[in-house]
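JOB MANIFEST
job_type = single_chain_structure
chain_count = 1
residues = 133
[input]
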Amino acid sequence: MNSLNPKAQVLVVEDDPDVADMLSELLGLEGYRVMQAREGREALALLRGGATPDVILLDLMMPEMNGWQFRQAQLADARFAKVPVVVLSADCSTQEKAVNLGARFGLRKPVDIERLLEVLEKIQPSHAPAARS
């Protein structure tokens, strides 16, 4: 990684603390700036509070507000509707669900870190950072 060119900011929306911490630590080691939310409502609060991730890693099965509900609320708000989403799920139809949600990619859990890094590299160059207000 080139330390003069910081990588994207990633919002990890995951209710399993072990998975969230593992993803955050590994992405941090790769130079990504990482924020965490334990479920959809917390993620929306971060976004509405001014957080500006360049990509969202979204678990689907969460308490309170699940991934589908979060995505619906995200798309309804022009301030962060265009932030790309990568769906993470243990479900065997993860890619199909990602397409149905309008997400850029779907990755099956347990997440293959090399594949996740490839996906993030594909998204990051083509996506301008979210508007800073």
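[summary]
The chain is about 40% helix and 20% strand.
The helical segments are 17-29, 40-48, 67-76, 94-101, 113-126.
exit_status = 0
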